[in-house]
Every structure is written in structure tokens, then in C-alpha cells.
Amino acid sequence: IAKKEFKGIVIKKKENYYLKEMVNKINKTEIEQTNKNKILFIGENTSEYLLERYNDINKWGYNEITSLNFLLENINQLKLEEPTLVIRPHPSENVNKYLFLIDKFDYLNIKISNQSELSEDIKQSKIVVGAESMALVVALYAGKRVISSIPTKKREISLPFKEIEKLIELI
């Protein structure tokens, strides 16, 4: 991608030490069998960014709430028996903003993460879902099944990894 975008400029690939450290943390210990049906949703503070930048929380056709809602409406497409969904809010997000969705989908087993480390949440999950967070890349490198929950075809995921599945294509 970089060579195509920056013609005539020398491009050097550098090791991503953050990614390497995170994957090492995740792979350090075994996953408990009780976590075999756990889905981790990675929150992103998309609406705040879109409001600040464009004065429109739906500028891209989605935000973190519509992305999570899309996942919850289609969670059965992931074909897990009695899944547990763990919502991991972005550090800049107010946890309470997701509570109405937990109430709306009260027949599902939904929890808010209490882990301080992202690596712990990823390690304990079978599937990691989000819109287009770097945490999805970390999960991909850690060998997890990764799914983008962008609920519209108007905007493609910006992460350049064909291994990231698209929920919109699974339904």
C-alpha cells in the first residue's frame, strides 16, 4: 500500500513492537475452556470523533452503537452455542452508553469488560468483533477469528487485512 501511495519514496518496513508485545501477552497462557463461546466487542469512540470532525455522528453510515447493535441483531450468524458477549469500551468512552443495548438484548448474555488489559480480553475470547480498531489487528495476529461489524456497505473497513471477516457478508 505504501509503495503505491508514496511513489519514488524509499519505504522501510519496521517491526511493530506494540503488536509483538500484545501478541506475546495473549499467547503466553492457555485459554480456559469456559471461554470457548466468548465474543469480545471492541468499542471505538467513533461518534465523538465524527461529531467533533463533521458534526454528524452518522457521517460514515455507522458509529459504535450502530455497529454493536448490528452485531447483537446478527449474533446467531456466528454459530456459537450460548455465546457470551463482552463489551470492551474504548478508554475514552463512558461505559454507561452501552447499557441501553444490554437492556434491549436482555435475553443474551452480555457483560461489560472489567479487565484492565486488552490482551486479557482478547486472550479470553474465541471471536473478536469491532468496526476497525487496531485491537482487531492485534487479535488477528494472536490467531483469533476477527469480524468487522460495520453495518453498511457505504464504507469499507480501512484495515488492510483480508482475513478480517465482514459481518455484513455473513448474513
Unreliable residue stretches: none
Largest sheet: 6 strands, parallel
Content-based structural category: alpha/beta
What's the total count of β strands? Answer: 6
Strand order of the largest sheet: 3-2-1-4-5-6
Question: Secondary-structure element sequence?
Answer: HHEHHEHEHEHEEH
Q: What's the shape?
A: globular
Name the helicity range: 25-40%
Q: How confident overall, as mean pLDDT? A: 91
C-alpha end-to-end distance: 30 Å
Alpha plus pi helix count: 8
Task: Provide the β-strand percentage band.
Answer: 5-15%
Rg over CA atoms: 17 Å
What does this structure look like?
This protein is globular. The longest helix has 11 residues, at 17-27. The two termini are 30 Å apart. Strand 4, helix 7 (134-141) and strand 5 form a beta-alpha-beta unit. 34% of the residues lie in helices and 14% in strands. The protein has a 6-stranded parallel β-sheet with strand order 3-2-1-4-5-6, sandwiched between helices. It has helices at residues 2-5, 17-27, 46-54, 64-73, 99-104, 118-123, 134-141, 167-170; strands spanning 38-42, 84-88, 109-112, 127-130, 145-148, 165-166. The chain is α/β, with parallel strands linked by helices and 171 residues long.
Attribute tags:
171 residues; alpha/beta; 34% helix; globular
How is this structure best summarized?
With 171 residues, the chain is α/β, with parallel strands linked by helices.
